[in-house]
Amino acid sequence: MNQYGQQCLGGTASMYGTARQHWANGIDAQTIFNTLNPPNSPNPDCDFCTGCGWFDSQGVFTARSRHTGGVHVLMADGAVKFVSDNIDLNTWQSVGGISDGRTVGEF
What we know:
about 110 residues; alpha+beta; two-stranded antiparallel ribbon; 5 strands; globular
């Protein structure tokens, strides 16, 4: 993921500085994120796409917050949790997986 972030910073991808500014839009990087990077990762949000519109391709969109030390996330069952920036990356990625057969306990 760090290499992907460096490619974004190097200009070989579309890096978005407007992520989360239009929070009412239910699209990637505004209200939707993925768990590829840990919360508040220093890696930028970006995607690799030529000719794409606004956030309409696959990419890395990290959970970010202005809260110190972590992010609040809404779970699929309606629960809201505070997740530390220091969460184990394997656990974090398992939380974001669907139908992968992995069981995630309390985190």
